[in-house]
Amino acid sequence: xxxxxxxxQVIPAADPRLRFDVFRKAILAASDRVLDSGSYxxxxxxxxxxKAFAAYIGTSYCIAVNSGTDAISLSLLAIGVKPNDEVIxxxxxxxxxxxxxxxxxxxxxIVDVASPTYCISPEAVKVAITNxxxxxxxxxxxxxxxxxxxxxxxxxxxxxxxxxxxxxSHGARYQGKKLGSIxxxxxxxxxxxxxLGCMGDGGAIITDDPVIAKKLFAFRNYxxxxxxxxxxxxxxxxxxxxxxxxxxxxxSDLDNYNKRRVFYAKAYNVRLKEYSANLPPIIDxxxxxxxxxxxxxxxxFRIKLLKSGVATNIHxxxxxxxxxxxxxxxxxxxxxxxVADQFVSLPIQPxxxxxxxxxxxxxxLQVLKEH
Length: 371
Ligand SMILES: Cc1ncc(COP(=O)(O)O)c(C=O)c1O
Known about the structure:
Blueprint (H helix, E strand, L loop, with lengths): L16 H6 L1 H14 L6 H14 L3 E5 L2 H11 L7 E5 L4 H8 L4 E5 L1 E2 L4 E2 L1 H7 L4 E5 L10 H11 L2 E5 L7 E2 L2 E2 L6 E5 L13 E5 L2 H10 L21 H11 L2 H19 L18 E4 L3 H10 L26 H9 E4 L3 H21 L1
Parallel strand pairs: 2-3, 2-6, 6-7, 7-10
Antiparallel strand pairs: 1-11, 4-5, 8-9, 10-11, 12-13
Helix pairs in contact: 2-9, 3-9, 4-5, 10-13
């Protein structure tokens, strides 16, 4: 599909409609199928998606849930995290990662990140470990793998579990393995703008551990077992059939979409390198959910781009310390503050760049030269 701009002046930073439009016929056919099935929650579409996504990542189990936030909370519950236990996580992420920890009564310990990917710093994790620590939740930020080898060493040494937050890294790899398959659980969001997204809320947990999987299948559905008996506290975090059907339509194309993201990240780097020393690193296995560059006077830079027809985003404008609810859980996070203050995300959605890459990159080059 050729992208037509509604507002002729501005190329958006992201527009999930474009991807759904590519799959429109298949999505409508799948929706018809769901409508006719008479089964709207946790039916065949969900089962098929769970099977296909587990196979895609290479794990034994996938448990489809209602959101990426619930996926983290439920995983923490399943590994036995209790109220007031400490869970160490990163200071550069969507606030949802921290909300998920607080939602089960655990205490988030929010630590600094490290260049060049700005994922959680293993050194900062090490310093933050106490006898209350139970888990580490690294986020594979913008499609880059966190330093899992170092984190695993710490986890082993201090008997901690790793829950990988893969909300931004569907299909990315680390040392040849798909992200999400390395920690005890991997959690995913299918928010519409993600590398794999549905047309509402959706999430999933993957794991190889049968005991944890069994708990999760119960927890997402009130705590119910196969015989209809409530065997634990649970919640309603079920995936509906329409969302699963939409994910089933797109899953086989995820790798192609990711390849195009890699292509555009590399193309940006080649074209912009003369004018910016702070471009995202090209790392094998990454899937470029975002493409953030560092600039001086970011607000001015964004306004200039917008005036020239290119919209941008910031990931994330508020450090965790700025959120009143999170401030008291933050360690010293100077690198995260630098990221929040100085980085801006350029468009990286393949459907947008397939049509507008030259226009976007020329505008960015022009603005960078004059900036
Ligand atoms: C890193 C990260 N974790 C968790 C979430 C939460 O996902 P959801 O919005 O599906 O609850 C997001 C979504 O933006 C995210 O980017």
